[in-house]
Design brief:
- The protein has four helices and two strands.
- By secondary structure, it is mainly alpha-helical.
- Strands 1-2 form a two-stranded antiparallel sheet.
- The longest helix is centred in the first third of the chain and has 34 residues.
- The chain is elongated, with a radius of gyration of 37 Å.
- The termini are far apart.
């Protein structure tokens, strides 16, 4: 075997080795894409999302259209928006009085609850 044939054979082996390496890498990339792809959104997931949206919409509709307590201890009540708009327009005919009333209500709503009781003097033996 002469030098030129040996050279051609060596180049051919390198070419086959490089092509094989690229094929192995391409196969690994294909496998990783196939195994790591998330499952498509199905009809069950779509129905679950629609149900959650309907629940949120119902809760919002209920809070906008019905009376209810926001904080019964402080006397804060939620009222329907259809009643709140005319009441706000009527109240704000005199801006100075409405502003002072609003500030008083905001202060009442922001009152802090009493502090929690002090911890026991003796530490718990199980801590």
């Amino acid at each position: 075997m002469n030098a030129s044939q040996l050279f051609n054979r060596t180049v051919g082996l390198y070419f086959v080795a490089i092509a094989g390496t690229f094929l192995i890498v391409a196969g690994l990339v294909y496998a990783m894409q196939r195994y790591t792809r998330p499952a498509p959104l199905g009809a069950a997931r779509a129905q679950e999302r629609l149900k959650a949206r309907a629940e949120v919409t119902a809760a919002n509709t209920e809070s906008l259209n019905n009376y209810g307590w926001v904080d019964q201890g402080k006397g804060i009540v939620r009222m329907p928006i259809t009643n709140a708009i005319p009441l706000a327009l009527k109240e704000w005919q005199n801006p100075a009085a409405a502003r002072s009333n609003l500030i008083a209500r905001a202060e009442k709503a922001a009152e802090q609850p009493p502090p929690p009781p002090k911890p026991p003097e003796q530490p718990n033996p199980y801590e």
